[in-house]
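Example (one chain per record):
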Amino acid sequence: MSTKTSPPLADTGLLDLLPDPMIGMDAERRVVEWNRAAEQAYGFSRTEAIGQNPIELLRMSFPLPLAQLRETMAETGVWRGDVVARAKDGSTYVVDSVLVAERDEQGRVNRVLAVHRDVTARLASQSELARSETAAERERIHARMRRAQRLESIGQLAGGVAHDFNNLLAIIINYTALIVSELDAMQRAPHRECWDALRDDLGEIQKAADRAASLTHQLLAFSRQGVGNPVLVDLNDAVTSVEELLRRTIGEHIELHISLAESLRMIRGDDSQLEQMLLNLSINSRDAMPDGGTLTIDTADVEVDEEYAAPRSELRPGPYVRLRVSDTGRGMTPEELDSAFDPFFTTKPVGEGTGLGLAAVYGIVNQAGGRAAFHSEPGVGTTFTALFPAAEVDAELGAAAGEARGAGAVATILLVEDEQPLREITHRVLATAGYRVVGAGNGQEALAAAHAEPGGIDLLLTDVAMPGMLGPQLAAELRDEHPSMRVLYMTGFAGSVLDLAFATTACELIEKPFTAPELLERIAQLSTPG
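Predicted structure:
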């Protein structure tokens, strides 16, 4: 009697990069995937776990009857809750378990992926707090925990949706631009009005796509999963570059005062995101001062000592750069202050605010490794403070200089993208610009194509997250055969897996959706010797 084996849920090497135990199950709820983190957490090897029922293997206890859990999975495809699991040595863990189902063509659940995160220590800490605090204090702590959970869950949703959404937007934007370019080249006088109307319609499509792309970037900034283009940034330069825009935006009834520290330390971040953060904060301050007031922006170098950092887990002692944005507006109540960074929270009238502005600010600061906080009093005003860790300038400039010295003219580009329509339009953009383009749909195809290329590869243009092999893994494989090859990564979403992949590697990135001019400009920058 033969048993049909389901294909793996994901590449084993990819799952082994993840810090949390990942367990894949087939339709009979038997283990087909068991990553390295699961081996380390529970003591069972992959060989021991494959084919077993994980509920029996780990003697798991659920907070609800299994029949009810399976009913929820059948209806929604997702379940999340705290589960008790026991390791091979008898140790007991409480894990935050997330179950996600895959359905077949008939809608039946045929595979399930489980992600476990150990929360034993967190629950023990919560229990200790509950015993030591009053009822009012416990309620305050629980409210903060619920807020953190909302931020995390919506951030995960935003990051996941944005990955595929950005691929589609890149296709729409570039095909639209290509059609408009072709229409401009067609001079058919008898039908000029028709062509003008068609061009106008296409222009509306492109504007809609641009607006959708802007929204996606805000969602990614909030979720802290947008890669952006992290480089060495002088925060003073970021403020100066948007000063005129801010003056036009806030209006003449508001005075703008800017006080910038001399010889400010450098930070590492995305300059365009930092400028967007300043704009978002200034718009919020403007709306809080309808009758006029003062908006003040100042920067300074500060040192965070152990005493200040101790109660703030996101901070470590050391040098930081401080940004403050203060206004003399109406201020916020304690309830509004507590929800200021929540997504979709706004004090503006319906239709006048998305509630994503400050949530995006929160994501931008955290993505740069910093800490964001508000202080506000009704009738007095509001002060936003961000602390950014100072960058190690010498090491970063040395790495950048090394990359520049190795750069030369780009002639042949290896384009690797698993989304075929996006690969095709990108191929056309590059070929039209005069580059020789070698295309591949995944890492293995790219390795074979590069090996067969007699003239070598000057530039690898690759998606970051692809089935079978991540972009950084592909680049590492190709480096031996093509040591002078430059690499430009394309991405619309980069979560914790990619943080691990890029942990020790300086890299060049371009965010999806990108336009043809943006892509060609980035390639030209890589082609220019330093």
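Caption: The chain is about 45% helix and 20% strand.
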